[in-house]
């Protein structure tokens, strides 16, 4: 366990070893933006069953390639999650994920009070007229699509990576 006071918001980093499989968790408090984003990411991961395993596969791929270590000026796990969600919204065709902030503006809007967030409350399924689950790609196809998107299609010079939060 270590405290990282150099961060803008104090972070407590906890490392779990076996039997948990070497997991590192960063905890912070009183950071309303991070709390809202975590809440939103939780719902994105539950919106389509492929989101969580795809994020896990991307993070494992990056770890094995040596590019998932912020201490070595590479991607953080959080940035890989955001890249995956961006791909699922903007790179996959048809998109796998919608903008939950647009679809559920009361729950995820800018004015949502952090104290009222409750991930135990399920989202009502969207009406077909608003969102239809058209993407039938397999998890493997989505992983290959993610790699192709960032290797060949994403225009790094002209494009800012945005998540439709």
From TrEMBL:
UniProt record, GO biological process: RNA 3'-end processing
Molecular function in Gene Ontology: poly(A) RNA polymerase activity
Gene3D superfamilies assigned to the protein according to its UniProt record, in alphabetical order: 1.10.1410.10
Domain (Poly(A) RNA polymerase mitochondrial-like central palm): residue spans on this chain: 4-45
Matching InterPro entries: MTPAP-like_central, NT_sf
Matching Pfam families: MTPAP-like_central
Protein name: PAP-associated domain-containing protein
